[in-house]
């Protein structure tokens, strides 16, 4: 007789699979596990989609957990399937294919959806979001037959898409509403250095640009801006952010705000349902980076297994790297500082190096690195430790080797 609890995981992305790994590593016989994934494949490394688009990797290269892995681990995988309803009272799920699945414990890892601004013409053929393998394949097909591309959004993913499409031979323009690129991660000085490097690669930019409409009949043909100017294009890639995919949780009556609200144990408002990853909202914050998702997975595994009920998820320090070959950019913590903070700035114009470190009360609280990010892990560790810098302070901006030697 099978006495194992039935654990159902909705979502087969990076957060959900990391949870699976933690559970199987710690106690592989505790749960009878079913995984339901909307995409018709195993799990893959989503942050490597940009190298696939650029031609530096293939889809097979970024598959981390093929269907055979689930079989070898005794996990039942339902790929290409979508949950349509959660009956919390009966602890049952219904899927689009008509399956009826019971659970004892349920984990939501439904991820996020690309945010599409309400621009006229956003539904025209040739307008693509950049979120999954299918999006990459659609862009590759467009690059084979078309010449001009516009990327709306000058954040990390938008810039990675722009560089990849340029490598595919397209003429690329990045359209961004803010005054500088990656405005949430970089200061204006670092952003300007980044923009110049990308311009050297043949990418054009329109900053402070407000898109009013996407024009075309059978296919997108141009962008029209709020000032009346037009930019002709054959492809529009939307990359203006993400929004938590909380629709299923909301329909089930769980407490949701921007995302599925969870406490420090990753528990939702239902005592049998946990959630993690980009779909959740923890202490008012929704995370869209991989590191916080992995940290959540470690905590949730211990909570589900009951091995350490005292462990808690306290939130994550945000750190960002741009994944473009030959361009090194890193940002972490409170890089924008504040009136009580001190900025320590280092510039090496000849070698294209820029560092801005933010210190508060003798502690490193944030930083931006451009051109040389070799010490990014060390700076991140100092931010996380939040320990007094002491003698390190005087030479901190010159990097770990010089600072520690001094």
UniProtKB/TrEMBL annotation:
Its cofactor is FAD. Residues 6-282 form the FAD/NAD(P)-binding domain. The keyword Flavoprotein applies. InterPro entries: FAD-bd_OxRdtase, FAD/NAD-bd_sf, FAD/NAD-binding_dom, FAD/NAD-linked_Rdtase_dimer_sf, Rubredoxin_C. Belongs to the FAD-dependent oxidoreductase family. This is FAD-dependent oxidoreductase. Residues 319-386 form the NADH-rubredoxin oxidoreductase C-terminal domain. Keywords: FAD, Flavoprotein. PANTHER family: NITRITE REDUCTASE [NAD(P)H], PYRIDINE NUCLEOTIDE-DISULFIDE OXIDOREDUCTASE DOMAIN-CONTAINING. Gene3D superfamilies: 3.30.390.30, FAD/NAD(P)-binding domain. The keyword Flavoprotein applies.
């Amino acid at each position: 007789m099978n006495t194992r609890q039935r654990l159902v995981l909705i979502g087969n992305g990076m957060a959900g699979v990391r949870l699976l790994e933690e559970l199987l590593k710690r106690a592989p016989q505790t749960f009878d596990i079913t995984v339901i994934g909307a995409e018709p494949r195993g799990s893959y490394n989503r942050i490597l989609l940009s190298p696939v688009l650029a031609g530096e990797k293939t889809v097979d290269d970024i598959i981390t957990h093929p269907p055979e892995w689930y079989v070898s681990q005794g996990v039942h995988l339902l790929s290409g399937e979508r949950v349509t309803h959660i009956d919390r009272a009966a602890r049952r799920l219904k899927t689009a294919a008509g399956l009826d699945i019971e659970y004892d414990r349920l984990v939501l890892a439904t991820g996020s959806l690309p945010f599409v601004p309400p621009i006229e013409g956003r539904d025209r053929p040739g307008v693509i979001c950049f979120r999954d393998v299918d999006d990459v394949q659609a862009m590759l097909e467009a690059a084979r037959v078309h010449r001009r591309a516009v990327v709306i959004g000058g954040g990390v993913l938008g810039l990675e898409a722009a560089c990849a499409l340029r490598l595919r031979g397209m003429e690329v323009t990045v359209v961004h509403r803010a005054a500088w690129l990656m405005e949430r991660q970089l200061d204006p000085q670092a952003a300007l250095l980044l923009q110049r490097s990308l311009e050297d690669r043949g990418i054009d930019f329109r900053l402070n640009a407000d898109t009013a409409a996407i024009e075309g009949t059978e296919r997108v043909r141009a962008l029209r801006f709020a000032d009346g100017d037009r930019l002709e294009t054959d492809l529009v890639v939307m990359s203006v952010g993400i929004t938590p995919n909380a629709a299923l949780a909301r329909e089930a009556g769980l407490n949701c705000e921007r995302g599925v609200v969870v406490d420090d144990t990753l528990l939702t408002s239902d005592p049998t349902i946990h959630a993690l990853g980009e779909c959740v909202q923890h202490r008012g914050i929704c995370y869209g980076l991989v590191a916080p998702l992995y940290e959540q997975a470690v905590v949730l595994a211990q909570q589900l297994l009951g091995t350490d009920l005292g462990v808690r998820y306290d939130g994550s320090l945000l750190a960002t790297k741009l994944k473009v070959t030959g361009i090194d950019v890193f940002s972490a913590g409170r890089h924008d500082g504040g009136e009580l903070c001190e900025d320590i700035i280092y510039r090496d114009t000849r070698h294209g190096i820029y560092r801005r470190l933010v210190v508060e009360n003798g502690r490193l609280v944030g930083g931006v690195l451009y051109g040389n990010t070799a010490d990014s892990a060390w700076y991140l560790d100092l931010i996380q430790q939040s320990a007094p810098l002491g003698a390190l302070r005087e030479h901190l901006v010159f990097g770990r080797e010089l600072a520690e030697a001094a």
